[in-house]
């Protein structure tokens, strides 16, 4: 249902390659050694707040301070080119249909990726492909650090071991817009990294769910803003304590016209406020002036969890434009007083994608509020869970949905952002507007953007028998006939260890567990093996698509989970309680890997050994590689090359770094960017490296040591004729990489 990260990290990723002979031939590939670790750079000195005119406008969009900007009421909604609407039109009474004026909004001109990086996925199509080509395979080895910015947001005693920032900045004009782990917003100079402004929404530490995470922010420009109008360009973010916040892009001051003093309380209609159970970690997706957002609902707690309702808010006023409650589709606004949106329904914790022309937003949905038992789910939950859902933002109603897993009891929620592409016809006769959808089980689907119909045939996998729910499980599961990142089923020979003892342990555990390939059903009398594990396949880092050369770049995990359902009597003996019943000192259910999640309301709690490790050394039971990166031909779905991603340098048995620079393939968290210059930039792995990979060959051409873990998506942009690469080095406590507060920029030396 919601995002849960694996605690792989140092012990997990093997630098246990002290016994290389135990690995299969080809599992290890030599990777260019990284330079020596450097001391962290000093924090950039803040610069004075710039004039609003430093932000370059999109064509036809007025900016604050623009004397030629046409006059418009401060209450006008929508984006550039949209039809004027009133405040009253945006308001929706409980249970009412959204105002028909939403349908009158015309598509707005969108900023495109190029010198800027205006969307979380780069451009509006979320391809993460940059047409900048100043940095090439021939000169990438000359990259140097040109600035380092530190947010100052580091764990305290209260938040120790809870930081997983995962931030991707936006770049618009000459400014970068950044959020920190605890939702502190800042703007920095794109050329120097100097801080221009900072806004701290003061999120309470008790709001942290699995980890303190802010993946990014959204940027919105009001149409026809008046001369000097505050918040004509604004930054909007969702927070861990479930607020939607808007600040002036030029000053960082809260937007007085948005909600109450710049904030909207998303707990409205959710029910009793239980800190840490309901949080927003991804930026909203803005389509036709409507900011669409879901929320993360902490996994494994109870069937009576907060609703997975999806809501659209006016990007100017913060007014609720519509709500989609899949359990109560007649309710299109706020619930009546004293009532809530349907509890326990599938949610969207990850990043949606917008299609401004169609007026659709594409939602990668999770499963219901207990991941591993489905006996109490409603028909609506079974219909909509683990689906990509297209919603028309002018009505708030679903247009189509495509389900990737039936009766999901594996936490195979959709974590990746979908990408909008033009898919070439098989006969070469043109292209179809399509959407590319990666999944945790590894399948990549190609769907018609307007109808949701598969453009490549869908196959059926016969599901194995067994499991605690018997005939309730789906008999078959859909599989993509286009491409899958999934590897062959595990065998006992795949069990591995740094010593004969832990290898023997893993082989015995494999024999004792229930396992009959993918979609092995949950069991309570013994463990069962889930492969791929719930971290993918493909997860929130998503894929990059070189639209000029027709190449998909996909990094992936290749690690199993070792799970067991816990009968309720045993769960009670272990005092496993959900988050809303916990008292100080209660044990169980607090760790992200799912060990001791209570799943209250169902007959079973759950133990999950994510990244399935041997207890003696902390080394995973599956032989390496545990993660990789692959190039795929967009037209045919055929693999161009595939190689392990991540070295053993920071990993080893008992959590001791080995510093072995061999590319063994580690678990990874984060995504890539691909450029016209022929390069793929990615960090993501647990070795604290950012690397440049040759798009044609998969060879690593350059790498650098980050001062903390690089579990984030990098961006590429241009400023004053110079191309920059920026990555957050924030670390990740679930991946067991060092935590930091760094944003680091690289560029070629100036001539």
TrEMBL record:
UniProt xrefs under SUPFAM superfamilies: Quinoprotein alcohol dehydrogenase-like
Similarity comment: Belongs to the bacterial PQQ dehydrogenase family.
Domain of life: Bacteria
GO cellular component assignments: membrane
GO molecular function per UniProt: quinone binding; quinoprotein glucose dehydrogenase activity
Protein name: PQQ-binding-like beta-propeller repeat protein
Keywords of this entry: Oxidoreductase, Signal
Residue intervals of the Pyrrolo-quinoline quinone repeat domain: 117-724
Any single Pfam family the record assigns to this protein: PQQ
Cofactor needs: pyrroloquinoline quinone
Biased composition (Basic and acidic residues): 566-584
Region entry Disordered, spans: 26-121, 563-604
Signal peptide location: 1-29
InterPro entries: PQQ_b-propeller_rpt, PQQ_mDH, PQQ_rpt_dom, Quinoprotein_ADH-like_sf
Biased composition range(s): Low complexity: 26-59, 67-93
